[in-house]
Write a structure and sequence with these properties.
Layout lengths: L5 H9 L9 H12 L7 E5 L5 H7 L5 E6 L2 H10 L6 E5 L12 E7 L8 H13 L1 E12 L1 H13 L16 H10 L3 E7 L1 H14 L8 H6 L2 H7 L8 E7 L1
Parallel strand pairs: 1-2, 1-4, 2-3, 4-5
Antiparallel strand pairs: 5-7, 6-7
The structure holds S-adenosylmethionine.
S-adenosylmethionine binds next to helix 1 and helix 3.
């Protein structure tokens, strides 16, 4: 997918029935990966916060202040409901494709499966630069986004085991390391860290489907696959991981 249909993507997220991540074990693992990198007393922008599942976890980090931004009223309302009573979170209706006003002194900008919704690399680059401009000097962008090389590695091993490809959804464009890394380097931003959930993806989207047809997300197998013990033992990080964490410093 190379073209970007903004209005179609917006109406997808305005649909009350849509959930950003149906695999809640994966969602918790994503949130953990991000939360571990955020320092106490930080000012954070949660860009494309959705219904605030991540925001809720980040809001519990001591003394943080969060601006949670999204372009969908439906998502923002769900996030507001979820975070009622958390007075360290301010909600902002922002369309990152258009003009907007936000602060320029964030310690962290978090993008959790947000930028993949901008299905055009040229626009993704523009938004990346705008997000970096909102960080204070030394501030960090934490991207947990779709990853082309992870999709390919997972699909290759699935093919060896007789399983069909898992496609990328119509409203997503995943990041290619061969484009993202040179672009960020050229713009003067340092790549500090890379990580992923490769162990979880390999076990739940590679091995488990060879054994079982009913792939209910809420299974003891998936919960075991997400534990730190298994993660550390197999240590696949971004290999086989459809989602990768990149941490860039301004
Ligand atoms: C896959 S959801 C992720 C939500 C949340 N970050 C999470 O990880 O659960 C993507 C979110 O990005 C938002 N989004 C997509 N395009 C946007 C844009 N141009 N400006 C602001 N938000 C946008 C959507 O409304 C949606 O809430």
């Amino acid at each position: 997918m190379t073209s970007y249909n903004h209005d179609q993507v917006l109406s997808h997220w305005e649909n009350n029935e849509v959930e950003s991540m149906y695999d809640k074990t994966l969602l918790s693992a994503e949130i953990e990966l991000i939360r571990n990198r955020i320092l106490e007393s930080s000012k954070i922008l949660d860009a494309g916060c959705g219904e605030g599942e991540g925001t809720l976890a980040y809001a519990a980090i001591p003394h943080v202040q969060i601006h949670a931004a999204d372009f969908s009223e439906t998502r923002l309302q769900k996030a507001k409901d979820r975070l009622r009573g958390h007075d360290n979170v301010l909600f902002k209706k922002v369309d990152f494709v258009n003009d907007y006003k936000l602060d320029h002194d964030y310690d962290f900008v978090v993008c959790q499966r947000f930028l993949i919704n901008i299905t055009d690399w040229e626009i993704q680059k523009k938004i990346l630069l705008n997000l970096m401009s909102l960080l204070k000097q030394g501030g960090k962008l934490i991207m947990l986004e779709g990853y082309v090389q992870g999709v390919d590695a997972l699909n290759e091993i699935r093919a060896e085991w007789g399983l069909p490809d898992i496609p990328v959804q119509w409203h997503n464009l995943f990041f290619d390391d061969n484009k993202l890394l040179p672009f960020m380097k050229q713009q003067g931003f340092s790549l500090i860290e890379e990580d992923g959930l490769g162990t979880y993806f390999l076990l739940t989207r590679g091995i488990r489907p060879t054994l079982q047809d009913n792939l209910n997300w809420d299974s003891p197998f998936n919960k075991a696959a997400a534990t730190n013990a298994v993660k550390d033992m197999l240590g696949f990080r971004d290999k086989f991981s459809r989602l990768k964490l990149w941490l860039f410093e301004k």
